[in-house]
Amino acid sequence: MSRPRTIDQSQILDAAEAVVARDGAARLTLDAVAIAAGISKASVIYDYKSKQALIRAVIERRVSEEQEKLRLATEKLGTGTDVHLRARINVISDNARDLPEAVAFNLLSAMAQDADLRSLMNDTYRAELEAILESSTNKRAAIVAFLALEGVRCLEVLGFVRWPDDKRAEIMRDIEGLISEKIPVRPPRDLSPVPVKN
To answer: At 110, phi and psi to the nearest 5?
Structure first.
C-alpha cells in the first residue's frame, strides 16, 4: 500500500496566484486551482474549504512574506532611530515589482468585497505604523516618508508608473532623506490613523 501524497501548501497557493493572474479573483475556482497545481480538487478542499478561504490564504502568505522580510531587514540594521522605516525602505528598494500586476489588481478587488480581508490589511498596516512611530524621533517626518514610500510601491505594483532602476534608487534615497530633513517637530500629538470601518 502506498503512502498518501503530501501536498505542499505553497504549491496550492502558487497555483491560486496563477489562476488569479490568468482568470481574475472573481473567476477563481477550486477546480481551476487543483488543475493548475496538478492535484485533486479534494486535496484543495481539504485545506481550503472555500474560494474565500483560498484567497485569504494567498493574501496572508504575501503579508507573512513581507513581514519576514521586514523582520530580517530590521534585525540587520540593529537598533536606532527610524530603524523600522529604514528597514521598510530597504525591503521595498530590494524587492521592486515582485507582485505581478494582474495578481495585485485581482487581490485588491477581492479585498474590496471582503470585510475580513480589509480588516487583515488594516491590522497589518496599523501594527507597522505603530512600530515605525515608536522608533522615530520625528514622527511627522516618519509618516510623510512612509506615505511617500507606500505611494511609490502602490503605483508600481498596479503598473501605473515605472521608473528606470537608477531613477528609482534616487527616489528611495530621497524618501530616506525625508527622515533626516528638518520637517518641523511640532508638539506631540497622536499621528496614528483612525480605524477604518469595513
So the answer is: -60, -40
Residue 134 placed within a domain: yes
Q: Is residue 24 part of a domain?
A: no
Write out the chain's pLDDT in tens, 198 residues.
444 456 688 899 999 989 988 888 888 899 999 999 999 899 898 888 888 899 889 989 888 988 999 999 999 998 888 999 999 999 988 866 666 777 777 888 888 888 888 888 899 999 999 989 988 888 888 999 999 999 988 888 888 888 888 888 888 888 988 887 665 555 455 555 556 565
- Cell numbers for 73, please give them: 531587514
> DSSP states of 51-103 as a string?
HHHHHHHHHHHHHHHHHHHHHHHHHHH-SSTTHHHHHHHHHHHHSTT-S-HHH
Count of structural domains, the chain: 1
Q: How far is CA 6 from the centre of its chain?
A: 28
Is the backbone of residue 48 left (phi > 0), alpha (psi -120 to 50) or beta? beta
What is the domain extent for residue 135?
53-180
> 73 in a domain, yes or no?
yes
